[in-house]
Specification:
The protein has 189 residues and is an alpha+beta fold. It has eight helices and nine strands.
Length: 189
């Protein structure tokens, strides 16, 4: 288990304290055998696998939804440790949330990214630099920038968020709408 680090919404919530998150998303810097990991989890407690594939394991451990993935990407910053668990740093989480938004555009991803950026006091231009550093040439900048102001999916997202601090969704959208033109200008140079 030491080769995995926690990322996703729960890791963001640990850093920012803005919402509750009820699943645990773990990532590995190296390949892993999902069957061996499932066996190890069963030794530690009640675990039921839902998906067991190469370098991917999804399931429920002690009534908590868990996922384990191998991602062929480097960490920008060394992980911290919380309760004996490695946790991705804010900078890595920001880059990962940008990519999540570019793939699915959920309201929680926008809110998580907004919370990370505002607590870290970075600009969206700074965050795009982190995305480039983490993902290198594997990214489509045009698609990423467009996705940061595409709110149709997020507006229709009915997933209940358990916010610990009130968040004005219109303010979150306005933030991205204000920042993206500066982002476009920085990319064009």
């Amino acid at each position: 288990m030491s080769k995995f680090y926690l990322a996703g919404g729960t890791a963001v919530a640990l850093h920012v304290g803005h919402r509750l998150s009820f699943d645990l998303d773990f990532f590995s810097e190296g390949r892993f055998d999902s069957r061996s990991l499932a066996k190890e989890l069963r030794r530690l407690g009640e675990f039921e696998a839902e998906t067991e594939e190469e370098d991917t394991l999804l399931g429920v451990f002690e009534k908590t939804k868990v996922s384990f993935f191998f991602l062929d990407e480097r960490l920008i910053v060394t992980t911290s440790t919380y309760g004996g668990v490695r946790v991705a740093a804010k900078k890595d989480l920001m880059a990962m949330k940008v990519m999540a938004i570019s793939h699915r555009g959920s309201k929680r991803d926008f809110i998580d990214l907004y919370a990370l950026i505002t607590t870290a006091r970075l600009s969206l231009v700074d965050v795009l630099g982190l995305v480039k550093k983490k993902y290198g040439t594997k990214i489509n900048l045009t698609h990423i920038i467009r996705s940061l102001v595409y709110f149709e999916d997020a507006d229709s997202d009915q997933t209940q968020l358990h916010l610990l601090k009130p968040v004005d969704w219109e303010k979150v959208k306005a933030y991205f709408e204000h920042e993206v033109p500066q982002l476009i200008h920085s990319v064009r140079g």
